[in-house]
Amino acid sequence: MTKADIISEISTKTGIEKVDVQETVEAFFKVIKTSMIGGENVYVRGFGSFVVKKRAQKTARNISKNTAIIIPEHFVPSFKPAKVFVDKVKSNTKKISVEA
């Protein structure tokens, strides 16, 4: 499912114009991005948490040149789903058959 699909589905379920739904969805993502860039975590009860994780400094190897590289500590965005959400997905995926 893409962002366009989400916008379409919200529009049909609520009766709100697609343009208005698109602006709302874009604003939602923008708020999450700016909050996380500022170091804040975003918690959505029943859905999950958008958290900023710290990665410690580490030493890596460049195997082609056989040299050590130091990767400095940095922060990465992460999503942790809520337990309720995980439980619903687990219980529902048993009904979905995966065809290879």
UniProtKB/TrEMBL annotation:
Top-level taxon of origin: Bacteria
Similarity annotation: Belongs to the bacterial histone-like protein family.
SUPFAM superfamilies per the UniProt record, alphabetical: IHF-like DNA-binding proteins (SSF47729)
One annotated Gene Ontology cellular component of this protein: cytosol
Pfam families with a match to the protein in the record: Bac_DNA_binding
Statement: the UniProt record of this protein carries the keyword Aminoacyl-tRNA synthetase: no
Keyword field: DNA condensation, DNA-binding
SMART domains per record: BHL (SM00411)
GO molecular-function term, one example from the UniProt record: DNA binding
An individual GO BP term: chromosome condensation
Protein name: Integration host factor subunit beta
Record bears the keyword NADP: no
